[in-house]
Write a structure and sequence with these properties.
Belongs to the ABC-2 integral membrane protein family. It is a multi-pass membrane protein. It is found in: Cell membrane; Membrane. This is Transport permease protein. By secondary structure, the protein is an all-alpha fold. The protein has one domain. The chain is 72% helix and 2% strand. The chain is built from ten helices and two strands, in the order ααββαααααααα. The chain has a two-stranded antiparallel ribbon. Helix 3 runs parallel beside helix 6 and helix 3 runs antiparallel to helix 7. The longest helix has 31 residues. The two termini are 31 Å apart. The model has no long low-confidence stretch (mean pLDDT 88).
Length: 260
């Protein structure tokens, strides 16, 4: 456990030393909520302000960026540079590498969420959850969501053939999922086929679970199933965790084809 902890500290330090990555990962959701919150100031229905709804999508996309997008781009780059191959040549257990990534993702997710909630609360009138049950729901939905996104990021890292091609492979997938999962728009305003497709992926369910935390109970009637349906949120995210873990175990690549 000590090895995993120190590997996590190393990963976090490397992240903080990359200014571009820090700005994009930590500041981008806050910048988006600043832009959208300044433009759209009205209600979306049932007395719910746009910011109150939009922040759920921003938290969800922030968790996906920290877990899925960052790892699916970072790991191929490290594989291409021979970092993973050199890691195999050390006596360090393989699980330590992944433990470091998990700690780094957790650190980024917490910091990013705190920044986002602070900006939305101070400048755009976001109402934070008022009960312990709401915060507990926020905790387990976030943990399940970031776990699923992290495992999906590790599994998807084997798709890109080179580190240079990874952003081109990963970024379109992340953007499409954001647009069809109710991040930038009210989910029920999207075409039916988009809602159906989004239902197969974890981001839609992560955002739905977060909406149950920040929106009034009455707003659940406007969800596709007539409620926030938290049991199904937990089941779908849990299934994605299992499926993505199996894909990690069976498809993860430590070396490139040229390394043999």
């Amino acid at each position: 456990m000590s090895l995993g902890y120190h590997q996590g500290l190393l990963e976090a330090k490397q992240f903080l030393r990359s200014r571009e990555q820090v700005v994009f990962t930590l500041a981008f959701p806050a910048i988006l909520i600043t832009v959208f919150g300044s433009i759209f100031k009205g209600d979306i229905g049932a007395g719910v302000g746009f910011t109150q709804y939009f922040v759920t999508g921003m938290i969800g996309t922030g968790l996906m960026t920290a877990g899925f997008q960052s790892l699916a781009i970072q790991i191929p780059a490290e594989r291409d540079r021979g970092v993973l191959k050199r890691f195999l040549g050390t006596p360090m257990p393989r699980w330590v590498y992944f433990a470091g990534k998990v700690i780094m993702v957790g650190f980024i997710a917490v910091l990013e969420t705190v920044i986002l909630l602070t900006v939305a609360t101070l400048f755009f009138g976001l109402e934070l959850p008022s009960t312990g049950d709401k915060w507990l729901t926020f905790l387990w939905v976030s943990v399940l969501g970031i776990t699923a996104c992290t495992l999906c990021g590790v599994a998807f890292s084997s798709v890109a053939r080179t580190g240079r091609s990874a952003p081109a492979v990963v970024t379109p997938v992340a953007l499409v999922l954001q647009f069809i999962s109710g991040v930038f728009f009210v989910f029920t305003s999207l075409p039916g086929w988009m809602q159906t497709v989004a239902g197969f992926f974890p981001l839609k369910w992560l955002c739905q679970g977060l909406r149950s935390v920040f929106l009034p109970e009455s707003f659940g009637a406007q969800e596709p199933g007539g409620s926030f349906d938290l049991p199904r949120v937990a089941i779908v995210l849990g299934v994605w965790c299992v499926v993505a873990l199996l894909l990690c175990l069976t498809t993860f690549k430590w070396t490139t084809k040229r390394d043999g």
